[in-house]
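Quick one: structure for this chain?
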Amino acid sequence: MQPILDAHVLQTRRQLLGRSVNTLGAMALASLLNDDAKADATATGGLADMPHHFPKAKRVIYLLHNGAPSHVDLFDHKPKILEWHGKQIPDEVQGGKRLSTMTSGQTERPVLKPLEPLRQRGESGAWVSDLLPQTAAIADDLCFIKSMHTDQVNHAPAITHLMSGFERPGRPSMGAWLTYGLGSDSQELPGFVVMTSRDKEASCGQIFYDYYWGSGFLPSKYQGVKFRSVGDPVLYLSNPNGMNRDVRRGILDDLAKLNEIKLQEFGDPEIATRIAQYEMAYRMQASVPELTDLSTEPQHILDMYGPDVTRPGSYAYNCLMARRLAERGVRFVQLMHAGWDQHRNLTTQLAIQCKDTDAPSAALVTDLKQRGLLDDTLIIWGGEFGRTPFLQGKIDNRERWGRDHHPYAFTVWLAGGGIKPGTTYGASDEFAHNVAENPVTPHDLQATILHQLGIDHERLTYKFQGRRYRLTDIAGEVVQPALA
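Got it. Here's what it folds into:
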């Protein structure tokens, strides 16, 4: 890192002029700037050359389903799978591709048909399982990409690749890149918020690693702020006993002056982060209680998200929070829900997962749409990979049926934010095993997301240790046919 250079780069023009308080020109400029203009500059932030082109979306809500939902059971209808149920998948289809250690030694790999029927929905005719009735009802608002594929066969590397463009930890996550490039439209809340949930049965052992929303080598003020489900939504947000808001304000003002001296002396951007985060924490003491107060939500809205909506930490609650965060200008909301890693419990847990997540996901799309926010809010739903079209386990032991990790073809859907609704892009082969048409990689998906926010993914870079890095590494093409 180059702290002094980074400190200068991170200054906005207004900040640079603001520090020149001893010059007559700066004094004259300060007299002309009203408080609203100053507040707007503070809230917006971002790089001077952003956006690169006119954006179709202002914000992103990423519904990341850890453990990997089964594309075979939910979206990817293949008559051949129905015909071959219980028969060994052809060797030429599997092709000796790498599998996880859970099935790599399994010699019998019988094709497994979907647990429940898939049907064509709406005018678009998109295939959606009976397990997802509410998603089926909004199929014409969605764009299904059925040709996703990745190189990672295990969860953590696949999620890290999807969210940061590289399979090993240490690089900035997507939300960090976006807040670095575009800043935030909110003065009262962080630009990048993360919420996690898991199945109530705790059937899935997926871990939420902090680096899934980390800032990597970017200044740490761009990392995601995790909202908790128990106690204060954000750690240490409440004042300790005996301290009121006025006292807190005075302490923060004094700390800011001391930190400003150190910033001028050392030029370390992490000191600037400290100043900004102390100030944001003070503002959040007022904004977060208002954000999490659901008493103003009409009952029909709560009903739309489902019975778990008032339970903090549930997927339904987090989806409603995502809508409320979007209303308040938060740039990137990352919801992570674990419970889809169904190696031995597909026949029981898949239906439970679908019941818990179907209505909230569909409600989020519908809620944003009826408020006029879907047009400039991009929603992504999907996992880090799919599940095998063949069985993990024995065909005669239905209670222990499962599917293994499958990176070679899977499905995600997108909505809003300038995405073409009611469309399907790409296709897998007749066994839903390999991509057959229009392959899409995680880098392609990342490039498309950035494009919709007005960013050329090849131009959003950050120099670290002598090299310019970007979210899409050295690859990525915008999926133009998916755009409206």
